Amino acid sequence: MDKVDIIVIGAGVVGLAVGAAIADKDKELYILEKEEIYGQGTSSRNSEVIHAGIYYPSGSLKAKLCVKANPMIYDICEKYKVPYKKCGKLIVANDETEVKQLEGIIKHATSIGARDLEMIDKDRIHELEPNVCADAAILSPSTGILDAHGLMNHFHREARRIAEFDPLVLDTEVMGIDRTKEGYLLRMMSGGEPFEIISSVVINSAGLYSDRIAQMVGIDIDKEGYRMHWSKGEYYSLTGKPPALMLIYPPPPQDAASLGIHSVPDLTGRLRFGPNAYYEAAEEIVAYLQRE
Fold first, then answer.
1. pTM of the predicted model, to two decimals?
2. How far is it, in rounded angstroms, from Cα 197 to Cα 201?
3. Is 204 within the bounds of a domain?
4. What is the mean pLDDT of residues 146-166?
């Protein structure tokens, strides 16, 4: 049976970035993706926003990585010609309660290291976005948008260049993982055929399916807090000239299910509104997985 050094499960933006970061011509690395094209999950169904690290809990890994990665992403885009735009973001308030909410947000964001945030008044808002009416706003100039597929293409090219071969293996789904004395035995379906391989290291970047991969190696996903709870959202596209060029957000809803319906420009000049957010019932998720 074949044995390799490293297997990365999942070829979304995280899996491809991990692959690019650890690729080594002296190590046998493979990035497994169950779809026929990489980046077909969450990586291609989001706002494509470069966040500044405003909302994440203090001390959390998300907060640390987002604040650290914000300037790094712009550097990558600039160096490797990944399309992006540092358009900036406004979080707007329209009454005294919402203004107080913004004050709490900016205090928290500053405490976790978010950069360049500023509270601005209605006159400044009007200067930046004449069609936005609000009493106050948080201005985040380091928030922007990028081409998510362009970023994934870059990471794929880097992994290929460093490894000196293409480590990406498409149409390959991991069905089970067993620990052995030699490493991790992965049981897969590849191109419709069963296949097994042993890897010394396995990295779980399976996105919405990451909890299933964790279960395969014996992790109690409920005890460890790894169980995924799927939330669905929809966007609506505006035709015609966009009324705003920046990202415009409301204060986050109190239920914390989302960041609220916001305006999302993209690099083509289109403006979207969304996403809404609602959790899928467990039985609907089970039915979806069974269809898979």
1. 0.91
2. 12
3. yes
4. 97
